[in-house]
## 1
Amino acid sequence: MHILHVVGARPNFMKAAPVHRALGEKGHQQTLIHTGQHYDTQMSEVFFEQLAMPNPDENLNVGSESHAQQTAAIMSRFEPVVLERNPDLVLVYGDVNSTVAAALVCSKLGVRFGHVEAGLRSYDRGMPEEINRLVTDQLADLLFTPSADGNQNLLKEGIPAEKMYFVGNVMIDTLVQLLPQAEVVFHKLRGDLSLESFGLVTLHRPSNVDEESVFLPLLRVLDKLSEYLVLIFPVHPRTRARWSDHLKRCNRNIRIVDPMGYLEFLALQKHAQLVITDSGGIQEEATYLRVPCFTLRHNTERPVTVDVGTNLLIGNDWALLESEFKKTLDGHRRLGSVPPLWDGSASIRIAEVLSC
Ligand code: UD1
């Protein structure tokens, strides 16, 4: 079978890499298309190297635009690629604009496609990713879910059970595979950053970083918390561009650094005392690594990380963040457990489904 994978943004790469490998082992012909949604070396190229993914067969170079323009550009550039390459099946990943754009193209051309990481719902349609998830899942022919709540959400939306496969979490496949390499990287990083004990911060959601009335108070809270624990903050390019002056004035215990490669970030995450984030994937990785995770959002499309994992939803309750932060440093850590099928073999299960 000829399978065409579509990737575009940072969180896609670690999901596609193990699926590409598992399908390769089954002998399928494969094509890899990069939409170019993320284009900086540190947001894209470094992941291909570290994840040992082949270079994309084509890059659509769409770059950054408004959501509508970016989605439309991906669609108009992806359509001729599908027509020319004529795959038997397309695989799309996660919930970014590249995911929904490719899904729309496939369904309009009548080309079968599968969604890896289907069924996740935050029930917050103010998030662009929620719109992308809803539309992609309605159109997909095959839906590969990472957790049982995904199947329940899809059933509620009227999607037939026979299209769904609860395979587990492909992002954890990459984590399991690369953790030994990340440990090697950690020893060097620890020396370079002179680290003993530290926390890790990532923020990129427009709801946290776009408005002055939200971002500046948040930065002040982080400044205060960094008196108790050094905080390493790799900053997304958009956030850096918008707030560079304020970021420069942070307390020296907040280490503002460039976006990191996969191995470097995983290394720090594994050894952090705690993580403060608004990312989706980091909630999952922290759960697997059993590192306390404080999510600066009111909801999550990954409720299993709260129900059984280490994740706590903080919203924008900075008093709660401070008290939970201190409790964690005092040794009251919630270790949680690892959700079912987050075992490093989700992509093998996908390859088996597709090879029947
Ligand atoms: C996208 C995803 C989000 C994911 C995040 C991870 C959507 C709707 N959002 O958000 O789900 O969690 O990626 O990073 O698809 N930029 C650069 N260099 C890059 C890429 C982006 O400087 O390589 C800047 C540009 O100024 C751009 C902005 O980041 O305008 C936003 O990029 P975009 O891909 O549209 O969304 P993200 O915020 O990265």
## 2
Amino acid sequence: MKEKISQIVERTMAKIEKLDSAKELNDLKVEVLGKSGELTLILRSLKSVSADERPVVGKIVNDARVELETAFTDKLARLEQIELNERLMKEKIDISIDRKRPIGKVHPLNDIKRKAIDFFVCMGFIVTDSPEIETTYYNFDMLNIPPDHPAREPQDTFFVTDNIILRTQTSAGQIRTMEKIKPPIKMISPGRVFRSDEADATHTPCFHQMEGLVVDKGITMCDLKGTLSSFAKHFFAEDTRIRFRPSHFPFTEPSVEVDVSCVHCGGKGCNVCKGTGWIEILGAGMVNRKVLLGCDIDPDIYTGFAFGVGLDRITAIIHGINDARVPFEGDIRFLKQF
Ligand code: DAH
């Protein structure tokens, strides 16, 4: 019997060594140590062994059992470790992949807007905000735009109600500022404006303006020209010239349209300036007496100038963008270029 037991142990140990799956290992364990396993049956047959021999043989069977159980447990632990290592290798996460995420940038229009704000803030202007949903009172009436003015037609303006609109110009911000602050005033007010235009290469129903307003004692058109000339040189090139052309805006008198010498050809004439050597960038003028009076500012004591720059237009000139719609599309291929 002793012999038989050591044979079982030897054979089982050899098998344990060879097996490399937990399932097979378990099956083998049942075969040898299970309820009707080889070794268990031997233990049961001890009844037939004589009473003297029984403790000796019993100890041998028990030792064999302990030895095999330890071997099974050790092997199972080794197999589990191998399996765990394989799984860890397979499930490895490459955390470096995160770093490849592209980094966003400031939209070219916002970049230009920020540079324009920086320039005027350095000149001592304050930055004000005013509502995009505006009343006809601020957008038209207080700016001396009469009720029969074509700008008030529904084909030019988005009406919310008869007297609430989407602002068509940042000029409404002039009035809101003059109601709150009394001269000296030096302010800019950038923001979105809306007109009911069909979108095409030169129009979009939403675009961006920056209003400027200076009101103080003794302000003249020279101040306007000096301010805008410095702005143009700062924005385009040191040798940029500006010119004033007579124009008409109800809220300024006199009114001008302001051109800069073409940034692409320096004034010789090219396809950007359509051969003229000049590019129009803004409207401006001396604040109309009626507008000052409406805001309780005495036009015999104070004078002022105002201007409204088209930010989309400046962005297009600087970057050579030839379709006004493109900057609004959010197309990554376009934005990546800046
Ligand atoms: N608001 C005008 C427009 O949208 C631009 C403008 C012209 C603004 C003259 C001004 C100004 O402040 O003085 O066309």
